[in-house]
Amino acid sequence: MGWWNKLGLKAKFISGITVIVLVTVASLCVSAWTFRSLREKTDRLNQDMELNQLVQTLEIQHLQWVNTLSRYLVDPDAKALSLATDPTQCGLGKWYYGTGKQEAVVRIPGLAADIAALEEPHKALHATAVTIREMKEKGDDSGARALFQASTIPALQSVQKHLSAARSIVAEDVGVQRSAFDKQTRDADLVLLGLGLASILALVLLALILFYSILKPCQEIIRYSKKCRDGSPEPLDLKRGDELGQLAQNLTDLTQHLHKELAFSKGVLEGITVPCAVFCPDDKTLFTNKQMLALLERDEAPHECLGLTSGELTCGRKDEETLSTKALKEKSLVHSKIEYTTHKGNGRHVMVTSAPLYDTQENLLGTIAVWVDVTEVVEKQNALEEKSRQIAEMAAQAQEVANAVSAASAALERQVASSSQGALDQRDRMTETASAMTQMNATVIEVARSAGDAANLAEEASDTAQNGAKAVRQVVESISQVETYAGQLKTGMHSLGQHADGIGDIISIINDIADQTNLLALNAAIEAARAGEAGRGFAVVADEVRKLAEKTMQATQEVSKAVTGIQHGTHGNIQMVEQAAMAVDVANDLAAKAGESLASIVHLVQDTAGQIHSIAAASEEQSATSEQINRALEEVSRISDTTSSAMSEASASVASVAGQAQTLRGIIERLQ
Hints:
Layout: H1 2-6, H2 9-74, H3 91-96, H4 99-107, H5 112-117, H6 119-138, H7 141-229, H8 243-271, E1 276-279, E2 285-288, H9 290-296, H10 310-314, H11 323-330, E3 334-341, E4 347-358, E5 364-373, H12 375-456, H13 461-531, H14 536-603, H15 608-671
Antiparallel strand pairs: 1-2, 1-5, 3-4, 4-5
GO biological process, one term: chemotaxis
Organism: uncultured delta proteobacterium
Pfam families: CZB (PF13682), MCPsignal (PF00015), PAS_9 (PF13426)
């Protein structure tokens, strides 16, 4: 059998298949010949049975035909005969004069005599129907009946006789054909059984040959592969020249190559310096390094941890589900940062990455887990977050300060606007007062001139006294108007003084807010310096906040100076207004006295000269008083202009403070 072992598997399978094909072809040929013979016998048997059925049907049809003819005879009301009178058009005639008769005679030669003898009585039978119809139509019913009995019945009996004889011959042939079919069927069964046994014997023999030549070496290869799997391979010595021998040699070479690759992979795993572990598809430890055990704070050696589940290795609990378990279930990469308590109770922050491992066929081999200790990084990050939180709190406080500065600036701006409007109103009132005093001064001069004329023209004292009384009434009205304006101006100046004092209070609040902002900026700079490199941006923002606080203090100082000037000017205005009010009171008293004098002149014309001198003296004194009032009003107007200018400057300074507060708020928002 050495030549057989050297023969390739392809040749062996071709040889086996050739044997099977030859046996199968022989079986098919014999089966085909057998089935063909059976099919021919079956067709002949079916044809004979159909012919037997046809003959029986023809007998029945002619019996029915004669029965219909007899009913036609006995029915006195029958008008027409509904029968086939042509012997070639009935069922028997079509079969007889068609191809059916010839085929039947050829297939069964014994039918020829009876079939030939059937033609004449069949024609005579149909001819009697024609004669009976003619006689019936002529009214010869008795003759028709006699003809029916004498000719129709005998012809029918003759037809039935020959058909029955033919049917017997056909039935006999059917029996012969059925016996032949049964015998041939039994012979076919024996032939097929013999072929089946021969095929089975050939297949069994071929299977035995293939088993000893193919399966036995395969079993040797399987045993070798199991020993390789268990890690204790033995030499595989199959001295064969076929594909199995080549497979054995290739498997031996592959095993040696895999041992080298496994040694290399083991060296790579042992050379990894980061903590890692490899788990099989059952989540049991296949490999772990010393760094992993050091991170877990386990005292065992790496080989002592093999076979532990990932939960036992990391947490000390067998059924604990870990990220490696999750990676196995989901068959995907799992990455997470966890807080881990070591086997000695120490806390660690660990970045864990678990990834599934696949072979080249995408079969799951297990998972590899890499643990990175990030405890120091997390602690530094927490410290930095705490610093950021403190800076955010200071920024929030600075935000509140900025909001307070903004609100105070808005309130101050409203106060300054109100004070500026009061100064403008004061200037308008002073302008009106100056105009009234100018009119009053002109009136006083007119009174003095009238008094002089009265002294020189005593004779016109009555007319002049009337004019003087009229002028004095105008003076009294002007002085009353001046007194009203002076009272309004006094009230406005007092209100302006209160607003100026309120501005001073707001400036004090802004100074306090600026000092607090500067202090917060200094604290933020100190905290940013403590934070180091991460707080450099906060230090820059804190410095900008400090500069804004200094600008705010400078602006508030300028506003404070302007407000102080406004307060001094306002107090001076109040004093001047009070003096003007006193002068107006004096002028009012003098005007009243002048009125009384003029009234006396009207009633006492004889005392005109003396009274006119008194009027002249009073007019001169009133003129001097009016000039003093005019100077006081001019001074008040100048102070009002100064106050209005100071209010404009204060409004600009307050707007600048509000702008600085908005800038500070924007910086704090960016800081947050």
